[in-house]
Amino acid sequence: MKLNNLTPAAGAKGREKRLGRGEGSGHGGTSTRGHKGAQARSGYSRKIGFEGGQMPIQRRLPKFGFTNPNRVEYKGINVSVLQALAEALSVEAIDVNVLREAGFVGKNELVKILGNGELTAKLEVSANAFSKSALAKIEAVGGKATTI
Q1: Does the N-terminal or the C-terminal CB of the chain have fewer CB atoms within 10 Å?
Q2: What is the rounded CA–CA span in Å between residue 10 and residue 51?
Q3: Looking at residue 34, what is its pLDDT?
């Protein structure tokens, strides 16, 4: 096999449809657009969500719900993750920067420590928020929890 004898697979390349180039081309006259109507005209573009005149789905379904503009979104980190991180990095203090460098948290995310899992290492943890169970587990092993 050489570069000069490479060809597309059989049937992969069809003949180009040359529209509006006379009756002999097979695509003259209306140029495959049918007779009259919006789609036959130049400059036609269908509206987003248009369903052929049927009531579109975004108008058939009712509005519902509520978005609280004051909601504070936290990234949850369990105490089991803190335990694994403490063992892997052999650190005694974990803050948002350590979690960020380890890849658990994004650049602008707020961190909340949650209480799932076991904690045996005595840690000084600083985060934006703590659940009650996480706070209890950190203090039970003699650690310290600081809210930023």
Answers
A1: N
A2: 37
A3: 93
